[in-house]
Write a structure and sequence with these properties.
This protein is an alpha/beta fold and 399 residues long. It contains 13 helices and 15 strands. The structure holds pyridoxal-5'-phosphate.
Length: 399
Protein backbone atom coordinates (compact mmCIF):
# COMPACT_ATOMS: atom_id res chain seq x y z
CA UNK A 1 0.00 0.00 0.00
CA UNK A 2 1.38 3.45 -0.92
CA UNK A 3 2.49 5.51 2.06
CA UNK A 4 0.81 8.77 1.04
CA UNK A 5 2.06 10.65 4.07
CA UNK A 6 5.64 9.79 3.06
CA UNK A 7 4.94 11.07 -0.48
CA UNK A 8 3.69 14.35 0.97
CA UNK A 9 6.71 14.82 3.20
CA UNK A 10 9.05 14.05 0.29
CA UNK A 11 7.60 16.19 -2.52
CA UNK A 12 5.38 18.89 -1.06
CA UNK A 13 6.30 22.38 0.09
CA UNK A 14 5.69 22.76 3.79
CA UNK A 15 2.82 25.22 3.78
CA UNK A 16 0.76 23.67 6.53
CA UNK A 17 0.38 20.77 8.92
CA UNK A 18 -2.04 17.97 8.21
CA UNK A 19 -3.95 15.58 10.42
CA UNK A 20 -2.65 12.00 10.21
CA UNK A 21 -5.37 10.69 7.94
CA UNK A 22 -5.71 10.07 4.19
CA UNK A 23 -9.32 10.59 3.14
CA UNK A 24 -10.55 8.85 0.02
CA UNK A 25 -14.34 9.19 -0.09
CA UNK A 26 -17.25 11.15 1.32
CA UNK A 27 -21.03 10.92 1.45
CA UNK A 28 -23.30 13.34 3.29
CA UNK A 29 -21.60 14.27 6.57
CA UNK A 30 -19.35 11.21 6.51
CA UNK A 31 -15.89 10.66 5.05
CA UNK A 32 -13.81 7.49 4.87
CA UNK A 33 -10.05 7.02 5.07
CA UNK A 34 -7.91 4.66 3.02
CA UNK A 35 -8.32 1.92 5.62
CA UNK A 36 -12.09 2.13 5.40
CA UNK A 37 -12.50 3.90 8.74
CA UNK A 38 -15.55 6.19 8.81
CA UNK A 39 -15.57 9.72 10.25
CA UNK A 40 -18.32 12.22 11.02
CA UNK A 41 -17.20 15.47 9.39
CA UNK A 42 -17.88 18.54 11.54
CA UNK A 43 -15.29 20.55 9.61
CA UNK A 44 -16.70 20.17 6.08
CA UNK A 45 -13.64 21.39 4.19
CA UNK A 46 -13.35 24.48 6.43
CA UNK A 47 -17.07 25.32 6.26
CA UNK A 48 -17.15 24.73 2.51
CA UNK A 49 -19.09 21.49 1.97
CA UNK A 50 -22.45 23.20 2.42
CA UNK A 51 -24.34 20.22 0.97
CA UNK A 52 -21.96 17.69 2.50
CA UNK A 53 -19.99 15.24 0.39
CA UNK A 54 -21.03 13.76 -2.95
CA UNK A 55 -24.46 15.36 -2.86
CA UNK A 56 -26.44 13.95 -5.79
CA UNK A 57 -27.62 17.41 -6.91
CA UNK A 58 -24.02 18.57 -7.21
CA UNK A 59 -22.57 15.29 -8.53
CA UNK A 60 -25.18 15.09 -11.28
CA UNK A 61 -24.81 18.74 -12.24
CA UNK A 62 -21.03 18.37 -12.46
CA UNK A 63 -21.21 15.21 -14.54
CA UNK A 64 -23.76 16.75 -16.90
CA UNK A 65 -21.81 19.99 -17.25
CA UNK A 66 -18.54 18.09 -17.75
CA UNK A 67 -20.14 16.33 -20.70
CA UNK A 68 -21.52 19.62 -22.02
CA UNK A 69 -19.03 22.48 -21.60
CA UNK A 70 -16.24 22.96 -19.06
CA UNK A 71 -14.43 26.07 -20.21
CA UNK A 72 -14.73 28.81 -22.77
CA UNK A 73 -13.37 32.20 -21.90
CA UNK A 74 -14.90 35.26 -20.37
CA UNK A 75 -14.62 36.72 -23.88
CA UNK A 76 -17.82 34.76 -24.53
CA UNK A 77 -21.15 34.44 -22.70
CA UNK A 78 -21.92 31.18 -20.90
CA UNK A 79 -25.30 30.37 -19.46
CA UNK A 80 -24.53 28.83 -16.01
CA UNK A 81 -22.48 31.91 -15.10
CA UNK A 82 -25.32 34.22 -16.08
CA UNK A 83 -27.90 32.11 -14.25
CA UNK A 84 -25.85 32.09 -11.05
CA UNK A 85 -25.09 35.80 -11.29
CA UNK A 86 -28.79 36.57 -11.63
CA UNK A 87 -29.67 34.25 -8.73
CA UNK A 88 -27.13 35.92 -6.41
CA UNK A 89 -28.31 39.40 -7.30
CA UNK A 90 -31.98 38.40 -6.86
CA UNK A 91 -31.34 36.93 -3.40
CA UNK A 92 -29.00 39.59 -2.02
CA UNK A 93 -29.06 43.35 -1.55
CA UNK A 94 -26.32 43.79 -4.17
CA UNK A 95 -26.69 44.68 -7.85
CA UNK A 96 -23.66 43.41 -9.75
CA UNK A 97 -21.41 40.38 -9.65
CA UNK A 98 -17.88 39.30 -10.62
CA UNK A 99 -16.79 35.65 -10.39
CA UNK A 100 -13.41 34.45 -9.10
CA UNK A 101 -12.03 31.09 -7.95
CA UNK A 102 -11.21 31.48 -4.27
CA UNK A 103 -12.00 33.64 -1.29
CA UNK A 104 -8.63 35.35 -1.49
CA UNK A 105 -9.18 36.25 -5.13
CA UNK A 106 -12.64 37.60 -4.39
CA UNK A 107 -11.20 39.83 -1.65
CA UNK A 108 -8.32 40.88 -3.90
CA UNK A 109 -10.92 42.01 -6.44
CA UNK A 110 -12.87 43.83 -3.72
CA UNK A 111 -9.70 45.68 -2.67
CA UNK A 112 -9.12 46.75 -6.28
CA UNK A 113 -12.75 47.83 -6.60
CA UNK A 114 -12.51 49.94 -3.43
CA UNK A 115 -9.27 51.56 -4.58
CA UNK A 116 -10.71 52.40 -7.97
CA UNK A 117 -13.82 53.80 -6.32
CA UNK A 118 -11.63 55.90 -4.00
CA UNK A 119 -9.56 57.16 -6.90
CA UNK A 120 -12.60 58.14 -8.97
CA UNK A 121 -15.12 59.14 -6.33
CA UNK A 122 -13.18 60.22 -3.23
CA UNK A 123 -10.14 62.26 -4.25
CA UNK A 124 -7.79 59.29 -4.45
CA UNK A 125 -8.65 57.79 -1.05
CA UNK A 126 -7.10 54.32 -0.87
CA UNK A 127 -6.88 53.17 2.74
CA UNK A 128 -8.91 50.19 3.86
CA UNK A 129 -9.69 49.68 7.53
CA UNK A 130 -9.62 46.01 8.55
CA UNK A 131 -9.91 44.15 11.85
CA UNK A 132 -7.36 42.45 14.05
CA UNK A 133 -7.95 38.69 13.95
CA UNK A 134 -9.71 39.08 10.60
CA UNK A 135 -8.85 36.68 7.81
CA UNK A 136 -9.21 37.42 4.12
CA UNK A 137 -6.88 35.02 2.31
CA UNK A 138 -3.24 34.37 1.44
CA UNK A 139 -2.41 36.64 -1.50
CA UNK A 140 -0.15 39.61 -0.72
CA UNK A 141 -3.03 42.09 -0.46
CA UNK A 142 -5.24 39.72 1.50
CA UNK A 143 -2.61 38.71 4.06
CA UNK A 144 -2.02 42.42 4.50
CA UNK A 145 -5.74 42.95 5.04
CA UNK A 146 -5.83 40.03 7.46
CA UNK A 147 -5.21 40.77 11.09
CA UNK A 148 -2.58 38.17 12.02
CA UNK A 149 1.05 39.32 11.98
CA UNK A 150 2.66 35.91 11.58
CA UNK A 151 0.98 35.45 8.17
CA UNK A 152 2.57 38.68 6.96
CA UNK A 153 6.01 39.08 8.48
CA UNK A 154 7.95 36.69 6.19
CA UNK A 155 6.59 38.43 3.09
CA UNK A 156 7.38 42.09 3.67
CA UNK A 157 7.34 44.60 2.11
CA UNK A 158 3.57 44.49 2.06
CA UNK A 159 1.30 46.72 -0.03
CA UNK A 160 0.47 50.01 1.71
CA UNK A 161 -3.00 51.22 2.57
CA UNK A 162 -4.30 48.74 5.16
CA UNK A 163 -5.07 49.88 8.69
CA UNK A 164 -6.08 47.54 11.52
CA UNK A 165 -8.38 48.12 14.47
CA UNK A 166 -9.78 45.81 17.15
CA UNK A 167 -12.92 44.00 15.97
CA UNK A 168 -16.21 44.94 17.60
CA UNK A 169 -14.87 48.37 18.65
CA UNK A 170 -16.67 51.17 16.83
CA UNK A 171 -14.66 53.95 18.49
CA UNK A 172 -11.38 52.43 17.26
CA UNK A 173 -12.80 52.28 13.75
CA UNK A 174 -13.93 55.90 13.95
CA UNK A 175 -10.51 56.99 15.20
CA UNK A 176 -8.77 55.17 12.34
CA UNK A 177 -10.88 56.87 9.67
CA UNK A 178 -9.38 59.80 7.78
CA UNK A 179 -9.72 61.49 4.40
CA UNK A 180 -7.68 58.68 2.81
CA UNK A 181 -10.14 55.99 3.93
CA UNK A 182 -12.03 54.44 1.02
CA UNK A 183 -13.43 51.30 2.65
CA UNK A 184 -13.93 49.17 5.73
CA UNK A 185 -13.44 45.42 5.21
CA UNK A 186 -14.84 43.12 7.89
CA UNK A 187 -16.20 39.62 8.36
CA UNK A 188 -19.71 39.78 9.84
CA UNK A 189 -18.59 36.93 12.11
CA UNK A 190 -14.84 36.30 12.23
CA UNK A 191 -14.25 32.69 11.21
CA UNK A 192 -10.53 31.89 11.22
CA UNK A 193 -9.99 34.39 14.04
CA UNK A 194 -11.90 32.04 16.34
CA UNK A 195 -15.61 32.44 15.48
CA UNK A 196 -15.94 35.91 16.98
CA UNK A 197 -19.51 37.17 16.90
CA UNK A 198 -19.78 40.96 17.23
CA UNK A 199 -22.27 42.70 19.49
CA UNK A 200 -25.65 43.26 17.83
CA UNK A 201 -25.09 46.99 17.53
CA UNK A 202 -21.54 46.88 16.09
CA UNK A 203 -22.24 46.37 12.38
CA UNK A 204 -25.22 48.77 12.36
CA UNK A 205 -22.92 51.40 13.92
CA UNK A 206 -20.22 50.64 11.31
CA UNK A 207 -22.84 50.99 8.58
CA UNK A 208 -23.96 54.40 9.91
CA UNK A 209 -20.36 55.58 10.24
CA UNK A 210 -19.51 54.50 6.69
CA UNK A 211 -22.54 56.39 5.38
CA UNK A 212 -21.60 59.52 7.32
CA UNK A 213 -17.99 59.37 6.12
CA UNK A 214 -18.67 58.32 2.51
CA UNK A 215 -16.70 55.09 3.00
CA UNK A 216 -17.61 51.71 1.46
CA UNK A 217 -18.62 48.91 3.79
CA UNK A 218 -17.25 45.64 2.39
CA UNK A 219 -18.26 42.42 4.12
CA UNK A 220 -16.20 39.28 3.64
CA UNK A 221 -18.86 36.56 3.71
CA UNK A 222 -16.53 33.90 2.35
CA UNK A 223 -17.12 31.77 5.45
CA UNK A 224 -20.43 33.14 6.71
CA UNK A 225 -22.37 33.17 3.43
CA UNK A 226 -24.93 30.70 2.07
CA UNK A 227 -26.75 29.88 5.26
CA UNK A 228 -23.76 29.12 7.46
CA UNK A 229 -24.89 31.54 10.18
CA UNK A 230 -28.63 30.86 9.87
CA UNK A 231 -29.53 33.41 7.18
CA UNK A 232 -28.59 33.26 3.50
CA UNK A 233 -26.01 36.01 4.15
CA UNK A 234 -24.84 36.96 7.63
CA UNK A 235 -25.42 40.70 7.06
CA UNK A 236 -29.14 39.88 7.38
CA UNK A 237 -28.56 38.93 11.03
CA UNK A 238 -27.58 42.51 11.78
CA UNK A 239 -30.22 44.32 9.72
CA UNK A 240 -27.70 46.09 7.49
CA UNK A 241 -26.66 46.06 3.84
CA UNK A 242 -23.02 46.14 2.72
CA UNK A 243 -21.85 48.04 -0.38
CA UNK A 244 -19.61 45.14 -1.39
CA UNK A 245 -19.74 41.48 -0.37
CA UNK A 246 -17.31 38.65 -1.11
CA UNK A 247 -18.38 35.01 -1.25
CA UNK A 248 -16.75 31.61 -1.74
CA UNK A 249 -16.71 28.37 0.32
CA UNK A 250 -20.37 27.28 0.59
CA UNK A 251 -21.29 28.69 -2.83
CA UNK A 252 -20.55 25.45 -4.69
CA UNK A 253 -20.11 22.99 -1.80
CA UNK A 254 -16.43 22.45 -2.52
CA UNK A 255 -16.05 23.19 -6.21
CA UNK A 256 -13.65 26.17 -6.43
CA UNK A 257 -15.72 29.28 -7.05
CA UNK A 258 -15.99 32.73 -5.52
CA UNK A 259 -17.84 35.96 -6.18
CA UNK A 260 -17.72 39.67 -5.44
CA UNK A 261 -21.01 41.51 -5.39
CA UNK A 262 -21.39 45.27 -5.29
CA UNK A 263 -24.09 47.88 -5.21
CA UNK A 264 -24.55 49.76 -8.44
CA UNK A 265 -23.07 52.97 -7.01
CA UNK A 266 -19.67 51.37 -6.43
CA UNK A 267 -19.50 48.79 -9.23
CA UNK A 268 -16.82 50.91 -10.89
CA UNK A 269 -14.88 48.27 -12.84
CA UNK A 270 -14.69 48.94 -16.56
CA UNK A 271 -13.38 46.58 -19.27
CA UNK A 272 -9.74 45.72 -18.69
CA UNK A 273 -9.77 46.45 -14.94
CA UNK A 274 -9.93 42.87 -13.77
CA UNK A 275 -10.24 39.33 -15.05
CA UNK A 276 -9.46 35.66 -14.60
CA UNK A 277 -9.08 32.71 -16.96
CA UNK A 278 -11.02 30.32 -14.76
CA UNK A 279 -13.26 32.80 -12.93
CA UNK A 280 -16.90 31.95 -13.52
CA UNK A 281 -16.19 28.97 -15.81
CA UNK A 282 -19.24 26.93 -16.82
CA UNK A 283 -18.31 23.90 -14.69
CA UNK A 284 -17.90 25.81 -11.43
CA UNK A 285 -20.82 28.16 -11.99
CA UNK A 286 -23.15 25.30 -12.92
CA UNK A 287 -22.13 23.71 -9.61
CA UNK A 288 -22.69 27.01 -7.84
CA UNK A 289 -26.05 27.55 -9.51
CA UNK A 290 -27.39 24.14 -8.51
CA UNK A 291 -25.98 24.37 -4.97
CA UNK A 292 -27.27 27.87 -4.25
CA UNK A 293 -30.68 27.03 -5.75
CA UNK A 294 -30.83 23.92 -3.55
CA UNK A 295 -29.81 25.89 -0.43
CA UNK A 296 -32.58 28.40 -1.09
CA UNK A 297 -35.29 25.93 -2.17
CA UNK A 298 -34.63 23.55 0.72
CA UNK A 299 -34.55 26.47 3.18
CA UNK A 300 -31.18 25.37 4.53
CA UNK A 301 -30.47 28.78 6.13
CA UNK A 302 -33.63 28.37 8.28
CA UNK A 303 -32.56 24.84 9.14
CA UNK A 304 -29.09 26.15 10.12
CA UNK A 305 -30.75 28.75 12.36
CA UNK A 306 -32.77 26.05 14.14
CA UNK A 307 -29.68 23.83 14.40
CA UNK A 308 -27.85 26.86 15.80
CA UNK A 309 -30.41 27.25 18.61
CA UNK A 310 -30.05 23.56 19.39
CA UNK A 311 -26.23 23.68 19.31
CA UNK A 312 -26.19 26.76 21.50
CA UNK A 313 -28.18 24.99 24.18
CA UNK A 314 -26.19 21.73 23.91
CA UNK A 315 -22.81 23.52 23.89
CA UNK A 316 -23.75 25.60 26.92
CA UNK A 317 -24.54 22.30 28.61
CA UNK A 318 -21.02 21.07 27.84
CA UNK A 319 -19.59 24.38 29.07
CA UNK A 320 -21.53 24.00 32.33
CA UNK A 321 -20.33 20.46 32.87
CA UNK A 322 -16.64 20.74 31.95
CA UNK A 323 -13.82 22.81 33.45
CA UNK A 324 -11.90 22.83 30.18
CA UNK A 325 -14.62 24.76 28.30
CA UNK A 326 -14.80 28.38 29.41
CA UNK A 327 -17.27 29.75 26.85
CA UNK A 328 -19.00 28.94 23.57
CA UNK A 329 -19.84 31.31 20.73
CA UNK A 330 -21.26 31.16 17.25
CA UNK A 331 -24.36 31.29 15.10
CA UNK A 332 -26.17 28.79 12.90
CA UNK A 333 -23.75 25.99 12.07
CA UNK A 334 -20.55 27.87 12.91
CA UNK A 335 -19.46 27.50 16.55
CA UNK A 336 -16.36 27.55 18.70
CA UNK A 337 -15.71 26.21 22.18
CA UNK A 338 -13.19 28.30 24.08
CA UNK A 339 -10.80 26.20 26.16
CA UNK A 340 -9.07 27.27 29.34
CA UNK A 341 -5.69 26.28 27.84
CA UNK A 342 -4.06 25.45 24.51
CA UNK A 343 -5.50 21.95 24.25
CA UNK A 344 -7.13 22.38 20.84
CA UNK A 345 -4.76 20.11 18.94
CA UNK A 346 -5.08 17.35 21.51
CA UNK A 347 -8.86 17.55 21.33
CA UNK A 348 -8.80 17.41 17.53
CA UNK A 349 -6.47 14.37 17.46
CA UNK A 350 -8.48 12.44 20.03
CA UNK A 351 -11.73 13.22 18.24
CA UNK A 352 -10.14 11.98 15.02
CA UNK A 353 -9.18 8.69 16.68
CA UNK A 354 -12.84 8.30 17.62
CA UNK A 355 -14.12 9.11 14.17
CA UNK A 356 -15.04 12.79 14.51
CA UNK A 357 -13.40 15.60 12.52
CA UNK A 358 -13.34 18.99 14.25
CA UNK A 359 -10.88 21.87 13.94
CA UNK A 360 -8.67 23.76 16.38
CA UNK A 361 -9.33 27.18 14.89
CA UNK A 362 -7.01 28.61 17.54
CA UNK A 363 -4.64 26.74 19.85
CA UNK A 364 -7.20 27.22 22.61
CA UNK A 365 -10.46 26.95 20.66
CA UNK A 366 -12.25 24.16 18.80
CA UNK A 367 -14.46 25.01 15.81
CA UNK A 368 -17.51 23.10 14.61
CA UNK A 369 -18.81 23.82 11.09
CA UNK A 370 -20.63 20.73 9.82
CA UNK A 371 -22.40 20.66 6.44
CA UNK A 372 -25.76 22.46 6.37
CA UNK A 373 -27.47 19.11 5.74
CA UNK A 374 -26.31 17.64 9.07
CA UNK A 375 -29.10 15.77 10.90
CA UNK A 376 -29.99 16.10 14.59
CA UNK A 377 -28.84 12.51 15.10
CA UNK A 378 -25.48 13.36 13.59
CA UNK A 379 -25.21 16.49 15.73
CA UNK A 380 -25.96 14.41 18.84
CA UNK A 381 -23.48 11.73 17.82
CA UNK A 382 -20.70 14.28 17.23
CA UNK A 383 -21.43 16.19 20.42
CA UNK A 384 -21.31 12.99 22.46
CA UNK A 385 -17.83 12.16 21.12
CA UNK A 386 -16.68 15.73 21.59
CA UNK A 387 -17.87 15.91 25.19
CA UNK A 388 -16.21 12.60 26.03
CA UNK A 389 -12.91 13.82 24.55
CA UNK A 390 -13.12 17.23 26.23
CA UNK A 391 -13.77 15.54 29.56
CA UNK A 392 -10.78 13.24 29.07
CA UNK A 393 -8.42 16.00 27.91
CA UNK A 394 -9.66 18.32 30.64
CA UNK A 395 -8.90 15.65 33.17
CA UNK A 396 -10.88 17.52 35.81
CA UNK A 397 -14.11 16.36 37.38
CA UNK A 398 -17.31 18.00 36.23
CA UNK A 399 -17.86 21.56 37.46
C1 LIG B 1 -13.53 34.98 5.80
C2 LIG B 1 -12.56 34.38 4.84
N1 LIG B 1 -12.12 35.12 3.81
C3 LIG B 1 -11.27 34.64 2.90
C4 LIG B 1 -10.79 33.34 3.01
C5 LIG B 1 -9.84 32.83 1.97
O1 LIG B 1 -10.50 31.96 1.12
P1 LIG B 1 -9.65 30.98 0.16
O2 LIG B 1 -8.92 30.03 1.05
O3 LIG B 1 -10.70 30.34 -0.70
O4 LIG B 1 -8.73 31.85 -0.62
C6 LIG B 1 -11.22 32.54 4.06
C7 LIG B 1 -10.73 31.17 4.20
O5 LIG B 1 -10.79 30.55 5.23
C8 LIG B 1 -12.14 33.06 4.99
O6 LIG B 1 -12.58 32.33 6.02
Amino acid sequence: MTDWREVESRVFMKTGRRLPVVLVRGEGCRVWDEDGKRYLDFFGGTATASLGHSHPVLAEALADQARTLIITSNLMYTIPQLQLGELLVEHSCLDRVYFANSGAEANEAAVKLARKWGRERKDGAYEIICALDGFHGRTLATITASGTDRYKEPFAPLPPGFVHVPYNDIEALKNATNEQTCAVLLEPVQGEGGVNVPDDDYLPAVRRWCDEQNVLLMLDEVQTGFGRCGTLFAYELFGIEPDVMTLAKGIASGVPLAAVLAKEHCAVFTPGDHGSTYGGNPLATRAGYEVVKHIIEQRLPEKAAADGDYLEQRLHGIEDRLELVTSVRGAGLLWALQLSREAGEQVVLRCLERGLIVNNVRPDAVRLCPPLIVSREELDEGLAVLEEVLAEVGGAPAK
